[in-house]
Design a protein that fits this description.
This protein is α+β, with helices and mostly antiparallel strands. The chain has 17 helices and 46 strands. The strands form twelve sheets. Strands 13, 16, 17, 20, 21, 22, 23 and 24 form an eight-stranded antiparallel beta sheet that branches. A six-stranded mixed beta sheet has the order 1-2-3-4-6-9. It has a six-stranded mixed beta sheet with strand order 10-27-26-25-11-12, sandwiched between helices. Helix 14 (576-585) packs parallel to helix 15.
Length: 967
């Protein structure tokens, strides 16, 4: 007698649609099991044969945090390529490496947290490196390409499941967990939501991650826009993953809810499906969810909704169909090291990791990301026999950022030039100051020898949370002796210094408090390799910034301590400017490589304070330029700078370009590759051009190329070439809801090169403020000398719509629109005007019964938008409880009104006037309401008829939720 094989449960049956399989699996899971799935680290359910699962694998420009991987250019560098095909291929390579690494290490997750689609509204944002562009159209185009590569092209199964970061209006690290972005409806719909929407609608997005900040007074983790906007853009189930620690922030930092049970329930009901909190410890989230269930704040149906979304992603990733999953490499990968030479594309079916194709792609991406900003006198490309001085703090660096993997291959600008021009023709001067630190007793800081110390790169073993990586303690602490050690001192701006020992290791403090020459690079969540010299008596104290303690020399070694700070005399052995001057004077051309270290002065948790280059690097640039007029500035940075380029014949910019950065830069300098990167954001001329970092009103504050009225240092889309291009034959045709725009581009130069053709528009006679010009489409193309190519862009007429606050929706205004084709937003070669039909503007019908929503203003001064309630709606209030004014154009009071009613909370005064005349009605709330969400109605006489501009003046900490008119 033979035992019967148990039937296959429906959730294991690949013939059934995913929805039915998920229904079956949900029915088999107990409530406790489902609750456990809500944490980032969902446990295995052994009785059903379900494996553990975690959300979140960083993969912004390569697989991050999990050890060696191919490192591509930073996201802002990928944005600078303006090449969607290239970025799609990068996403594909990254996803293949995710799969290959997971086959070795099940800590590697398939739910990837990338890309970042936050718009680069403000160049001082510390995380500028993570975004693609200040423009929503370019951002969504690049993000869509990357997500398509990450997803793969199978119609059913996904190679990885991309999650977009960070929803919503998130561009500041300063007070990022408590600050509120005041975003008016026009900015919300035309700018911030647009980049997310167009990417989600493209169909390769698995979810989003809410940001730490609040929008209009309400935390993003309880945002109604998750339901009202995000989930209406696609029929797919989207998985919303919280940012790390953000669920606890709702109570602990934002104080938005009184208890964690309330906060967790509110986030879940708003649409958060996976809670990233307390690391791998799920017990607190589980306890909070169970507490919310017990208090009636949640039901099992609410839990099912969130778990269903997670399971939808897991099914799409092929977890339950390993034999059908075309991306499951675990069956094919040979045992051993993932760096084994067998892991290349010569072996079909074998996981692709660090393949020759991936290395070539990393170099191609780095080359395409280089932007030539200036090239007077055709100084570039450099002559093949030129003697070159390569100088600067970044000249022999290949920097990583917080979201990089560990380098397998490495190329610095110096190494690239050695390889391309020959080491005998290249002279190097880093430009650091060579210093010794002398104590009062005449001894000097000394690095003891450590001959047995193994070379170790930070994070090379991989870590689920690299913030927890500790400094090395296997090396001897610094001491003091009669001769001391000569350190390389670099000042990265604002007095933030690094000190490097002769063996290349940076001084760093470990958890035991001792200072060692122990780090291969500055890094970590809290950087332990930065210091500040503080004048004290006749010398300096040396403050360690990571611990905010001074350095103290004790009998058992040098340490950071709360007391007994040592006083040092800084002895300059050689100034960096002197070394740069010598090298520059002897060269035919000088390359100054300047920029930032992505872990210092501008990074996650820390915004920049200025666009200026750090003074140390300005001095090096000035020394080089004085010694040799043929000086090229190569800026290698995560963000724009405001630099004086008037006396520089040639300037380039590239983001930190990953493992092939140096080779790519050298090939561009040599002319092997004609540069064709384009700026993905405006480069402003000075700090005076910038609005406040926390001012998110791009329209009112005239931010980004869309609205900026000044003269930028370099405009959006700018980038030069070693070739020249002509544009001709602009033609348009409108049919079936589409505007067809065509023109030709010809390479009129003598070298093959890429050109990035850009198409912009502007409304000629708008009824409301519209962009000065706005990107409609672009294309990067390669042309041989003399070759001409015809371009056709199919632009949907919806691209000409704007958010009409008078009607609360999108509207295309009838009338003339300029079409502008050219090489950048500031280099227009062709233009024509088309007349489009649409819906004419209509007065705002304030007396029709719906009244006035205060946030739907046309203009404002001194006003912030805040939350009407904790769950939905907007109100307005004067900034900091002061005074503010709102303007509503063309309000139609019909045949006449006699009364105005305002819903208000708090305390203060509301004044109403028409067309700038004195107030017609004044409403005052003298006694404060119980809280910010307790509204009362105030009524006053107001006689008005016809169409007028309405002005509201607010005084004091008054919240205004609605204004109605009657009579």
């Amino acid at each position: 007698m033979t035992a019967q094989t148990p039937p296959t449960p429906p959730f294991r049956d690949p013939r059934l649609p995913f929805a039915k399989r998920i229904d079956d699996l949900l029915a088999r899971l107990t409530l406790d099991e489902k609750v456990s799935f809500l944490h980032q680290f969902a446990p295995a359910v052994e009785r059903l044969g379900i494996a553990a699962f975690r959300t979140g694998q960083e993969a912004l420009h390569g697989v991050a945090w999990m050890g060696p991987a191919t490192v591509f250019p930073q996201a802002v560098g990928l944005g600078a390529t303006w090449n969607t095909d290239l970025v799609r291929r990068v996403g594909e390579a990254v996803s293949k490496e995710v799969r290959a690494m997971r086959a070795r290490d099940d800590r590697v997750g398939l739910n990837v947290w990338a890309p970042t689609v936050n718009l680069l509204r403000h160049p001082l944002w510390g995380r500028n490196e993570e975004g693609y562009s200040e423009d929503p159209k370019l951002t969504s185009a690049i993000a869509t390409a990357y997500t398509r590569g990450l997803r793969g092209d199978h119609p059913v199964y996904w190679r990885t499941a991309p999650v977009l970061k960070h929803w919503l209006a998130h561009n500041n690290e300063t007070d990022r967990a408590t600050s509120s972005s005041s975003v008016r409806p026009r900015v919300l719909h035309e700018y911030d939501l647009r980049a997310f929407r167009e990417t989600v609608e493209a169909g390769a997005v698995a979810g989003v991650m809410p940001a730490y900040n609040l929008v209009n007074g309400r935390p993003n983790h309880v945002s109604p826009y998750l339901r009202e906007q995000l989930r209406t853009w696609t029929d797919e189930e989207l998985l919303v993953c919280s940012d790390a620690g953000a669920p606890s922030n709702l109570v602990d930092h934002e104080h938005y809810f009184a208890t964690h049970e309330e906060a967790t329930a509110a986030a879940l009901l708003a649409g958060v499906d996976s809670f990233t909190d307390h690391g791998t410890d799920s017990s607190q989230i589980i306890a909070r969810v169970n507490g919310a269930l017990a208090q009636g704040l949640l039901t099992e149906k609410d839990i099912d909704t969130a778990v269903r979304r997670q399971l939808s992603v897991r099914f799409r990733l092929g977890e339950f169909d390993p034999h059908d999953d075309p991306y499951d490499d675990r069956r094919d990968v040979p045992h051993g090291d993932p760096h084994d030479d067998r892991h290349d594309d010569r072996h079909p079916g074998v996981a692709e990791f660090d393949t020759p194709a991936h290395r070539a792609l990393a170099q191609e991406a780095a080359e395409q990301a280089v932007v030539l900003l200036k090239n007077d006198g055709d100084l570039l490309p450099l002559a093949p026999d030129a003697r070159i001085a390569v100088v600067g703090l970044l000249a022999d660096e290949c920097k990583l950022d917080w979201y990089s993997g560990t380098l397998i291959h490495r190329s610095t600008p110096l190494e690239g030039l050695y390889e391309r021009f020959g080491a005998e023709r290249v002279e190097f001067a880093e430009g650091v100051d060579r210093v010794r630190l002398r104590l009062a007793d005449g001894t000097f800081l000394h690095v003891p020898p450590a001959p047995e110390a193994a070379d170790e790169a930070r994070g090379s073993a991989g870590a689920l949370d690299p913030a927890l990586l500790a400094g090395r303690t296997d090396l001897p602490p610094l001491t003091a002796d009669a001769t001391g050690t000569e350190f390389a001192l670099a000042d990265w701006g604002e007095g933030v210094l690094t000190l490097r020992a002769p063996d290349g290791r940076y001084l760093s403090a470990a958890e035991d408090g001792f200072v060692r020459a122990a780090a291969d690079q500055p890094g970590g969540w809290v950087v332990q390799e930065t210091f500040r010299l503080e004048p004290h008596e006749n010398g300096h104290l040396l403050r360690h910034l990571g611990t905010d303690r001074h350095v103290s020399v004790a009998t058992d070694g040098v340490k950071v301590a709360a007391e007994n700070a040592s006083i040092f005399e800084l002895i300059i052995v050689e100034r960096g400017t002197d070394a740069v001057t010598r090298a520059a004077a002897a060269a035919d051309a000088v390359l100054v490589v300047a920029g930032n270290d992505p872990h210092i002065n501008g990074r996650e948790t820390e915004d920049r304070t200025t666009l200026a280059l750090p003074p140390h690097q300005e001095r090096l640039l000035r020394a080089a330029r004085t010694a040799n007029p043929d000086t090229v500035l190569a800026l290698v940075s995560s963000y724009p700078y405001a630099v004086d380029v008037a006396r520089l014949p040639a300037v380039l910019w590239t983001a930190h370009g990953g493992q092939a950065a140096g080779t790519a830069l050298a090939r561009v300098l040599a002319g092997d590759v004609s540069p064709a990167g384009r700026l993905p954001q405006t480069w402003y001329a000075s700090d005076a051009d910038l609005p406040d970092l926390l001012d998110y009103d791009v329209l009112g504050a005239r931010q980004t190329y869309l609205y900026f009225e000044g003269t930028p240092l370099f405009p959006f889309g700018h980038g030069l070439s070693y070739a020249s291009f002509s544009y001709a034959d602009l033609a348009t045709e409108t049919a079936d809801g589409t505007l067809r725009v065509s023109f030709t581009v010809t390479n009129t130069g003598d070298v093959p090169a890429d050109e990035v053709a850009q198409l912009y528009t502007r409304a000629v006679d708008p009824s409301a403020v519209r962009p000065r010009r706005e990107l409609l489409a672009h294309r990067r193309l390669t042309l041989r000398p003399g070759e001409r190519s015809g371009l056709i862009f199919e632009v949907p007429l919806s691209a000409f719509e704007f958010w009409d606050v008078a009607r609360g929706g999108l509207r295309r205004e009838p009338g003339p629109y300029d079409l502008l084709a050219g090489a950048s937003s500031g280099d227009i070669r062709l233009r024509t005007t088309v007349v489009l039909d649409g819906e004419p503007a209509a007065p705002r019908a304030v007396a029709s019964g719906s009244g006035l929503e205060p946030a739907d203003f046309d203009e404002q001064s001194g006003v912030a938008i805040v939350d009407r309630t904790r769950t939905a709606g907007d109100a307005v209030t004067p900034t900091d409880g002061g005074t503010g004014e709102l303007v509503y154009r063309n309000c139609d009071f019909g045949t006449g009104t006699t009364e105005v009613t305002a819903r208000v909370a708090g305390r203060g005064t509301l004044e109403l006037s028409l067309d700038g005349a004195p107030p017609l009605a004044v409403l005052t709330l003298d006694e404060p309401t119980a809280d910010a969400y307790t509204y009362i109605s105030l009524t006053a006489h107001l006689a008005a008829e016809g169409v007028h501009d309405l002005r509201l003046g607010l005084r004091g900490p008054l919240r205004l939720a609605h204004v109605g008119f009657s009579g």
